[in-house]
Amino acid sequence: MNKTHINNLTYEELEEYVTSLGLQRFRADQIFRAIHKNGIDNIDKILQIPKEDRKKLIEKSDIRKINILKTFKSKMDNTKKLLYLLDDNNIIEGVLMEYYHGNTLCISTQVGCRMGCSFCASTKNGLARNLDSSEIVTQVYAVEKHFDTIIKNIVLMGSGEPFDNYENVIKALKILNNEKGRNISMRNMTISTCGIADKIIEFANTQIPATLAISIHSFNDEIRGKIMPVNKKYNVQSLMDAIREYGAITNNRISFEYTVIPGENDRDEDVELIKKNLSGLNYIVNLIALNPINEYNKVNSKDAAMHFKNKLEKNNINVTLRRELGSDISASCGQLKIHYLEEGGLDEV
């Protein structure tokens, strides 16, 4: 019998579920707090619940777990790459980054990815499956417990396209944000998408104030289509129409993630395209130096990224250059690759 993962339920869903089992409604509050605030991962250890009620829960339910399989620490900074083992033996990746304003955890939303972006290692083996919301939120709890730390910010920029797993992602955000649980502010959450236009509009209508980050990388349809297959379905015009609608509905600032590929998307005409497309928006362009991977034969673009940043600034474009973290352990964006399975060449912390 398939059991219900009770950590996969929102607070409201949990209320309905416990009453369906014959428990009093207020037990949902005790269970939710135990799991999402106190980190309990065993129903029998939720001692606020009477033994008979725990027995009813255990018969029909469980708390889905993920385990940290291996951790790797950068020699360049204190960044840590994490490999998580799921209960079906799939592996996902994460990155824990330390900043002066608190710890940020980069979270995966799928096992693999089907978007096929040419510079991203995590998509090369395709999509295995979506993560459910319990597997998304438990990445936070597992890291906090393992390192005895607090995660202040989460970025959904690990393996997977969040808007290709939309329902589970939105549910996970609500669970993490719930004041009876972990209570992470929505404004401390960032969702990165390669540009699924209809989901951007749907997300706007939720009025969730998380930061929206668009993996744009080029405003030229021909160039973007070569490096991002999603552009064939949602070209730059349709994507920008959705983004402008998002901006009109939410008035939130939008981050445009732009990996600098020397000679391809850092030309003078690219500067003009950025100016044209972002005119009138509340935005920030976040430049990223290309991280070389085996599957994409391009050189690292640190110098090119800085040069391009200078050009954008001269054109009064609001721009920043992302600080590179953990590149020596393949933890930088675009390099979330399961070396544990393919090479086994990293030293465990």
Provide a concise account of the structure shown.
The chain has 349 residues and is of the alpha/beta class.
Describe this structure as you would to a colleague.
This protein has 349 residues and is of the alpha/beta class. The chain folds into 2 domains: 4-62, DNA polymerase, domain 1 (Orthogonal Bundle), CATH 1.10.150.530; 67-342, TIM Barrel. The chain has 11 helices and 14 strands. It has helices spanning 11-20, 27-36, 51-60, 133-147, 166-177, 197-206, 221-227, 236-250, 268-278, 302-314, 339-342, and strands at 4-5, 61-62, 67-73, 80-85, 91-99, 102-106, 110-112, 127-130, 151-156, 189-193, 211-215, 254-260, 283-289, 319-321. The strands form 3 sheets. It has a 10-stranded mixed sheet with strand order 3-4-5-6-9-10-11-12-13-14, with helices on one face. Helix 10 (302-314) links the parallel strand 13 (283-289) and strand 14 (319-321). Helix 1 (11-20) packs across helix 2, helix 4 packs across helix 5 and helix 6 (197-206) runs parallel beside helix 8. The longest helix is centred in the middle third of the chain and has 15 residues, at 133-147. The protein is globular and about 70 Å long.
**DSSP, total strands:** 14
Topology as H/E string? EHHHEEEEEEEHEHEHEHHEHEHEH
CATH superfamily of the largest domain: Aldolase class I
How many helices? The count is: 11
Q: Rounded to an integer, what's the Rg over CA atoms?
A: 21 Å
The helical percent reads: 25-40%
What overall geometry do the principal axes of the alpha carbons give?
globular
CATH A-level architecture of the largest domain? Alpha-Beta Barrel
Number of domains: 2
What is the CATH topology assignment of the largest domain? TIM Barrel
Low-confidence segments, given as residue ranges, are 345-349
Structural class given helices, strands, pairing? alpha/beta
**What is the strand arrangement across the widest sheet?**
3-4-5-6-9-10-11-12-13-14
Mean pLDDT: 91
Major beta sheet summary: 10 strands, mixed
Give the CA-CA distance, first to last residue: 38 Å
